[in-house]
Design brief:
homodimer, mainly alpha, Tetracycline Repressor, domain 2, about 210 residues, DNA-binding
Chain lengths: ~210, ~210
DNA sequence: CAAAAAGACTGAATGAATTCATTTTTTAAG
DNA sequence: CTTAAAAAATGAATTCATTCAGTCTTTTTG
């Protein structure tokens, strides 16, 4: 059987994670004090810091879970995409966007992004960066699949095009979470507009 | 003559700005304490806060100065660009990148970006966002000029294409400052690679 | 010029994240 | 089963950004 220590550790980690995500959702990231998280998880403040390097680390852990789900959901679109390039790309991106606010508020996204930029060397920041890379790779894979199916011209650098689509959707998402007034619909609409030229031009059959 | 109060205010503002930028450069943003900045500027801590809303505000003020210079320098490229689309776009972008580390370290950029994302409603964040918009508009203007000169096909949505180039260069710059090991040369090279497909496809004379 | 009003300045007090020396619990060794 | 070693947990103390009530300076008014 697993040692007592290992079981207790896993349990505490779960309690802390749940206490933190719950509090973040209820009162927001800033208003959630470590003391409160620790109290809800029934551990001391010091113990919190034995499990997570910082409050930001804790947040990135919750965001990472979210992004992993999104990548999973993307796989089915990548493996069986709409025939039309713009439709396929938009389908994948809209899926990302629609998932994004299920568990996380704009405030939480802002904070998570801020932390991952400011302290890129912490373990959870690396994990976040890796997930970004995985998303980028997924978009590139989609473009490559479309090329294999004859929907994208031969000779196109699919990694470059994928990176461009990804960087665009990512930057636009950043703008989206920065602006409380911006809606998901507008975000999707603008990104689709921006993607159209490249999507059209790489398509087989464009003039 | 200007009132005594106005003169003293301007002088103090200059002293605080210089003390802060100096300390940020010398010891980094995090290690520069408000108390130290105030001491070097020969004012009290409270006075610092009469001039800047927060420590981050102070940093964004210095970044804004930098970005304004870059936009100025970009104007001449936009008004008289190389004939080839990829060359023109790369010329403008490389200019942005080359200027970026003259006054600011990667750490300062990271912190400034983090703050502008996390607290988008503060005055200096708005200024930063506005400058980003101006940069984006400059890239779009370049593409439009190239179209007017017959280097870019008719019918291309130059605002969309400009936004895509800009979001790509901006996201790649973010990745660059996140990674201490990444060089300016590699950044420029990768961005040029990513831009090539779109730049080629919108060019007049592409197959 | 004197008094009042407006504007700045000040630094001690506040509040929250993070640290760290001690204490407690678990595991491993004999 | 003891006991030494290792691992975890603890919470009081520390550190810093930020605030604010009181004081001082400049400007305006009469």
């Amino acid at each position: 059987m697993t040692g007592l220590r290992a079981r207790q550790k896993a349990d505490k980690n779960r309690r802390i994670l749940e206490a933190a995500t719950g509090l973040f959702r209820e009162v927001g990231y800033d208003a959630a004090r470590i003391e409160d998280i620790a109290e809800r998880a029934a551990v001391s403040v010091g113990t919190f810091y034995n499990y997570y390097q910082s409050k930001g680390d804790m947040l990135l852990a919750t965001v990472a879970m979210e992004v992993e789900e999104v990548i999973d959901a993307g796989r089915s679109i990548v493996s069986d995409p709409p025939r039309d390039v713009l439709s396929a790309v938009s389908r994948l991106i809209d899926q990302y966007y629609d998932h994004s606010l299920v568990y996380l508020s704009k405030e939480m996204w802002r904070t998570a992004m801020a932390i991952s930029i400011q302290q890129p060397e912490t373990p959870f920041s690396r994990r976040y960066t890796d997930l970004d890379r995985a998303l980028c790779a997924q978009v590139s894979t989609l473009v490559r699949n479309l090329q294999a199916r004859g929907a994208v011209r031969e000779g196109i650098d699919t990694a470059a095009v994928g990176a461009m689509f990804f960087n665009n959707l990512n930057m636009m998402f950043t703008d989206f979470v920065r602006d409380e007034a911006m809606t998901l619909e507008r975000l999707k609409h603008e990104v689709a507009r921006q993607n159209r030229p490249l999507a059209t031009l790489i398509s087989v059959g464009a003039d």
